[in-house]
């Protein structure tokens, strides 16, 4: 039997209390109809924020929307901002988007799929409206939409004598329907099992999280923060939009579990009877979660200063093996987790020297480590081929943290017993020409990679720095269809996730993988080191990157018959960021100055098929001709 909670705690923490006018609203993040993350506290520059409960299946919603539109017209210029809030878990992104398009609704429609936000806001029926004061996050006015102009006039200081045209009577609205939340939730019966399965791998003694879920007392102490990180989608650190794509090792939390955790906190974080499983059977942190490695490499130790910026380090380790191997998996164990920001690793190719100070980890890429991405397993039937006489290559990014530190990072490699069917290939969709404008809240930058042969795409890793706000990948097919395959609406620079598709993407010849990142270079981005700056590409975190790692295989390649041409793939890579209109070829205005100079033979001659643009194949052929003509020749634009 569930123990009933003490009355006082229940009264204090009852969901409705969280929405009381005098109490500032807690922050939240919800995804809108366009897949964009909307954060409450990000609206701090509005004079008033209006949130209206809405559901298009309710008859009065059309009238409500008309009213919202007239309020927008009336108060928008005075700094009022409007958002609809749909709390029907069964509603889909598509239906919200279709609705907003068909109604020309120019405002975000937030989807509260877990209902924890709408409940805490105390919303009861459609048309129920909150007028919020972003100055202190208090609810200035709460009632039916028909009266919202009162609260708005007060907050925006708009001329109240100008009466609102709409005098329509209060709309009836439809009662919001709630998925049931059990009362009397307890830590032992309801919460500890969820924490064990979703959180404790990291939140354990010796784990990567800053605090360990060692038992009830600890968890209760952190309970307000647990509620906060769940409401703002910070934890668990997965960050992929659940409505786009399905992924292996999905670390997202289910709606039901999220609701249970938040409701438990709001009900007073009661312990309950019985054993405390997190204390009795702690989840152990494992250095080698994939088992004992076949080979352990120790990266030469590096002394990280207490302060300053450390240049990227490119150590290398001669391959100690006497026989060729196929790498099937790898795990990185950072020596000093606070100092190691990330590690990228690959192997050189036999007979292809890698100049000192260059990492070239992408030619034979094995793993990219960052917290939460300790291990990489190659997709079934694939591996990375490493021959004797080569070097293991690393790119190390160290970040000083106030204390001198010595790092000794280790890498464990796992080998296939027998040769796999195919090579795992890698590319990065990058744009080193980005210029992110100053004082801009959302500037989009994009690039693509075109597959010139049929391919299977296994996984994606979006990467940006402090100004990265959201990131997405789309597949553009030769017939013009464009499909979202990964959406990370709330990018978090602390985390570098590998999103591996449950069903790998089949990409036909000419398919383009488009990577778009939105950057927030405004003062509202708390992590932004300098909003006044036009930010260029750069490896260090104060510069930016548009960078998306892609692992794939060529459909027509086998381990016995390699067809990958690195030079050609590199050409496709840089065409993919110079080609602004994404038509697959570079027109004269799209060519960078130094390339225009190189085209001594004339544009028309290089444009072999005479279509008015230079595609990757034509440019690659030009490069080869020029290399043959004048050795040694400078390499084409940087790989990264
Ligand atoms: C993959 C590892 C990982 C998982 C899984 C994980 N966390 Fe975390 N958690 C971290 C790390 C690392 C931090 C600190 C860095 C950050 O905030 O991103 C953190 C921070 C936190 C914080 C403190 C936030 C702060 O401001 O200091 C809370 C609370 C938290 N996590 C709760 C949870 C809960 C609840 C879950 C499960 C639903 C969870 N975490 C799952 C790694 C993890």
Keywords, separated by commas or semicolons:
640 residues; alpha+beta; Glutaredoxin; Jelly Rolls; 4 domains; seven-stranded mixed beta sheet; six-stranded mixed beta sheet; 14 helices; binds heme C
Low-confidence stretches: 1-21
Class by alpha and beta content? alpha+beta
In spatial order, strands of the major sheet run 2-1-5-4-3-6-7
Chain-averaged pLDDT? 90
- Count of discrete alpha- or pi-helical segments spanning 4 or more residues: 14
Instruction: Name the helicity range.
Output: 10-25%
CATH architecture of the largest domain: Sandwich
Which fold name is given in CATH as the topology of the largest domain? Answer: Jelly Rolls
In percent, how much strand structure appears in the residues? Answer: 25-35%
Radius of gyration: 27 Å
Give the overall silhouette.
Answer: globular
Written overview of the protein:
This protein is α+β, with helices and mostly antiparallel strands and 640 residues long. It has four domains: 7-156, Glutaredoxin, CATH 3.40.30.10; 187-280, no CATH class; 295-420, Sandwich (Jelly Rolls), CATH 2.60.120.230; 426-622, Sandwich (Jelly Rolls), CATH 2.60.120.230. Helices cover 20% and strands 26% of the residues. The chain has 14 helices and 29 strands. It has a seven-stranded mixed beta sheet, with helices on one face. Strands 8, 11, 14, 15, 18 and 19 form a six-stranded mixed beta sheet that branches. Helix 6 (187-198) crosses helix 9 (255-266), helix 8 (223-231) packs antiparallel against helix 9 and helix 11 (566-578) crosses helix 14 (616-629). The longest helix has 15 residues, at 61-75. The radius of gyration is 27 Å and the shape is globular. The model is unreliable at 1-21 (pLDDT under 50). The chain binds heme C. Heme C binds next to helix 8.
């Amino acid at each position: 039997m569930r123990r009933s909670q003490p009355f006082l705690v229940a009264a204090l923490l009852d969901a409705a209390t969280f929405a009381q006018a005098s109490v500032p609203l807690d922050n939240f993040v919800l995804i809108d109809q366009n897949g964009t993350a909307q954060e409450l506290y990000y609206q701090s520059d509005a004079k008033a924020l209006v949130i209206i409960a809405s559901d298009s299946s309710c008859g009065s919603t059309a009238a409500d929307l008309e009213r919202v539109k007239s309020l927008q017209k009336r108060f928008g210029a005075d700094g009022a901002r409007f958002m609809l809030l749909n709390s029907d878990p069964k509603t889909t992104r598509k239906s919200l988007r279709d609705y907003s398009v068909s109604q020309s609704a120019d405002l975000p429609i937030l989807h509260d799929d877990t209902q924890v936000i709408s409940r805490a806001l105390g919303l009861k029926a459609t048309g129920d409206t909150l007028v919020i004061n972003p100055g202190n996050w208090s609810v200035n006015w709460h009632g039916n939409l028909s009266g919202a102009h009162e609260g708005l006039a007060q907050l925006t200081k708009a001329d109240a004598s100008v009466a609102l045209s709409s005098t329509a009577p209060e709309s009836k609205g439809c009662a919001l329907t709630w998925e049931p939340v059990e009362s009397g939730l307890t830590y032992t019966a309801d919460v500890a099992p969820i924490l064990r399965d979703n959180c404790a791998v990291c939140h354990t003694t010796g784990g990567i999280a800053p605090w360990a879920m060692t038992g009830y007392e600890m968890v209760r102490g952190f309970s307000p923060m647990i509620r906060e990180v769940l409401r703002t989608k910070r934890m668990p650190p997965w960050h992929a939009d659940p409505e786009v794509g399905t992924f292996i090792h999905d670390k997202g939390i289910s709606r039901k579990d999220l609701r249970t955790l938040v409701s438990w906190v709001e009900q007073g974080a009661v312990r309950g009877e019985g054993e405390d499983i997190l204390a009795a059977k702690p989840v152990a942190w494992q250095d080698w979660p994939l088992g004992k490695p076949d080979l352990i490499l120790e990266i030469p130790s590096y002394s990280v200063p207490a302060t300053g910026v450390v240049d990227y380090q490119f150590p290398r380790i001669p391959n100690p093996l006497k026989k060729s191997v196929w790498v099937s998996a790898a795990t990185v164990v950072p020596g000093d987790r606070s100092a190691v920001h990330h590690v990228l690793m690959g192997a050189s190719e036999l007979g292809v020297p890698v100049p000192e100070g260059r990492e070239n980890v992408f030619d034979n890429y094995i793993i990219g480590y960052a917290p939460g991405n300790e291990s990489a397993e190659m997709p079934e039937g694939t591996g990375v081929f490493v021959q004797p006489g080569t070097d293991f290559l690393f790119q190390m990014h160290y970040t000083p943290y106030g204390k001198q530190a010595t790092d000794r990072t280790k890498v464990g490699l796992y080998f296939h017993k027998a040769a796999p069917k195919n090579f795992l290939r890698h590319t990065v969709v990058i744009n080193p020409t980005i210029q992110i404008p100053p004082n801009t809240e959302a500037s989009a930058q994009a690039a693509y990679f075109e597959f010139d042969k049929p391919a299977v795409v296994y996984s994606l890793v979006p990467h940006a720095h402090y100004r990265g706000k959201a990131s997405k990948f789309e597949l553009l097919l030769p017939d013009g269809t464009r499909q979202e395959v990964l959406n990370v609406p709330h990018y978090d620079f602390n985390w570098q996730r590998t999103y591996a598709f449950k069903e790998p993407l089949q990409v036909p010849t000419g398919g383009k993988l488009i990577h778009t990142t939105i950057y927030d270079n405004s003062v509202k981005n708390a992590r932004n080191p300098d909003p006044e700056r036009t930010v260029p590409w750069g490896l260090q975190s104060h510069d930016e990157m548009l960078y998306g790692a892609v692992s794939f295989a060529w459909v027509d390649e086998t381990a016995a018959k390699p067809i990958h041409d690195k030079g050609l793939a590199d050409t496709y890579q840089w065409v993919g960021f110079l080609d602004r209109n994404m038509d697959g070829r570079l027109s004269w205005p799209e060519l960078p100055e130094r390339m225009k100079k190189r085209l001594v033979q004339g544009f028309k001659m290089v444009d072999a098929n005479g279509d008015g643009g230079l595609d990757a194949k034509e440019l690659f052929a030009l490069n080869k001709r020029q290399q043959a003509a004048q050795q040694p020749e400078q390499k084409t634009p940087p790989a990264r």
